[in-house]
Records
---
Amino acid sequence: MLGVMILTAKVKLETSKEQFNALKHTLETTNRACDFLSEIAWQNKVFGRFGLQKIAYQPCRERFPALSSQLVVRAMAKVADAYKLDKKARHTFKPHGAISYDSRILNWNLTHKQVSIWTIIGRLKIGFAAGPRQMELLAGERGETDLCLIDGVFYLFVSCKIADVKPIDVQDVLGVDLGIVNLATDSDGERHGGAAIDKKRRIYAHRRRNLQRKGTRSAKRRLKQLAGRQARFQANTNHCISKHVVKKAQDTERSIALENLTGIRERVTVRKPQRARHANWAFHQLRTYIAYKADMAGIPVILVDPRNTSRACPKCGNIAKANRPNQSTFRCTACGHVANADVNAAENIRSRARAVVNQPMVANGVAKHDSATSLAL
Ligand SMILES: [Zn+2]
């Protein structure tokens, strides 16, 4: 049994001016309908989707006759979701907040790279841009789709189920340790994305601090540009690293072992704002990329207990904080074993994964299933 993974494909709509205006008008009207529905929900203290449908569907159709019934249904779902998170205040909706489409109001033509999408002026056929990876995702089972307006461009975010892939026969495990200085270190001792990338990240951080200090309007604009550039750099870095790691595992017929995500947060001590940024931004993306690419290649991913992977000695089993005197060094206080700290952690991850897959129940793919489930987006 294999796990199912859900990933999001991002598709840029290539709108004409008329199409753009139609989509914008649709977005604005639907969000106004959300405000209208939200007011009814708030006044009547009816927050559930079906309760709301009962009392608000008809008034909403009458108030917004231009909206299709399906978009009214989607708007009610959006309002109900907002109240699911918080019932203490009346929710209002941004005019250009994302709205969701389903197959009744959105159809895909992958061959011609075109969608047929319902808008307030009728259905429109709009071309879209998508790279090979996005196309691969779209070819699978497609779920809900969000229409988003970002910096004057319309995008569709599509949740896609990844088709199951036949697992390869693995002979061993490649342990991979994710860190801040060395983004990924494997149990062979290879470091992926080291000094050069760290240097570039420092440059970005330095520029950001300078711009933040300035605080002018143009500095704010440049800060935003910088954030975009940095995000693309990060995504590209993680793409390259994950590709390399997965290729290596594939070529050497090994599965990949990673720590559970929580382990990284516990282990890496950085200042709080940095911690959030690192944990969410870099690690999560790299793990997701590795898991996704491994999944596509049929390589099992095994998640191991992250506790003390950086403090345990693989030779004698001694666990001590003092085993890691600094960021880069591991030195066992009991047996004197010395290694690079990240390589040492990767070795521990590998041996833990080997202990897991040696249990017969897990060997036939359950480990894979677990990892796929917990890494799904
Ligand atoms: Zn030792």
---
Amino acid sequence: MPTGVDAALGWLRREEKASIARLMDWLRIKSISTDPVYAPEVQRAAEWAASQLREAGLSVEVCGASTPAGVKGHPIVMAHSPGAKDYKGPHVLFYGHYDVQPVDPVELWESPPFEPVLKPAVPGGPGERIVARGAVDDKGQVMMFLESLRAWKDAGGAVAGGVKLTVLLEGEEESGSVSLEKFIRDNTATRLAGCEVCVISDTGMLARGRPAITYGVRGISYTEVTLHGPDQDLHSGLWGGRAPNPNNELVKVLAQLWDKDRRVTIPGFYDAVRPLQQPEREEWRRLGFDPVEALKKIGYGKDADVGEAGYTAMEREWARPTAEINGVWGGYTGAGAKTVIPSKASAKVSFRLVADQDPDRVRTSFFEWLRNRTPPGCRWELTDLHGGPPATVKTDSAPLAAARRAIERATGVKPAMIKSGGSIPVAGLLNSILGIETIFMGFGLDDDRVHSPNEKFEIDCFRLGARSHAVLLDELRVVTA
Ligand SMILES: [Zn+2]
């Protein structure tokens, strides 16, 4: 009889159909967090996850949560396993979310979003897969972890493989995690006490069959700016050339955000940016990413491979900050011509940030930069929409090394070490409040249609992920915290 991790892996192999069936049960619950109509379903999805954790032997609470302003939020599921007596590894926090995005446009779904179906592999295309809202983001990825816990318990091993474990599953990730920060602050010394490293499965692999560990995500600062001019819309024949036009003035100011090398011109913007080291650049080059191929997929030719001078496309995505105008509007935008000078003009401007930039500082210096360029007679209205710090993990930490070994043992493939240009604000939050780093061990693919119709999760990805988590629990036991 195999014991320990071998027994758990054998269990995952034998019980895979049942694991997938459980995932499908969870996917049938319509836990759309942003729409209050679905609040009872969100609650049900939380209770469902709680029951899974309970069956895996953990002690579980479904906690109430609320925003700093006291608005009631969706529940947060917390679970604990004390760890084996002789456990010397780190106290691990696993974070995931059980809420999902809305399903519209629903007519583009080939099967109803909350009636998960198993679809066969397509030659040269996606493998056998589950199609449903939440299949990969994030129920499917959380389920890999839940099933690895169940495997350890049911195969006769210790609860959570003997690892000292805290689990936090939130229900507001897809609607801004508005209660999470307060919950973490309120529970730092209680439910979250002692956590030393976080594991999140909400990221992707490098490609099919090429598992990866994401060791950095970018932060974000998102703003809205409005430039107010005259107290009324004006006739451009009578007033054009006589007084500032907010549209003209806004675009003139925003165009100064980049210099000729496409570097952001806000003073101090790059001060906190960790410089890219040569070994890291070489490692990334060896991943074999083809920027021209990627551009082709979005309808661009190779001359579009431009960005901050001196960096490759991958470096620009993974290790350099950016400024983007996400929307710009003002004046007449309907059909035909209307000769108007608007009273105001607006833009949404966001910054993706890298370690160790601080979103508050970036926003403050952007607003200061705008005020120093206030066009004559005009005034700014400046709004902070949201922000979150970047998160980068040390690549030489013992838990990260354990995760690398786990993936290699579980899948037979050395994981690629990658970063992501996207933002997972919870990682930065955990870092700034609890002082812990996050290992992103995700098994999604870039064609999983996250947030879109026909979202899918491939069975092979689920399998690699469940096995990797089971072995990670084993590897953590030999790490000394
Ligand atoms: Zn999502």
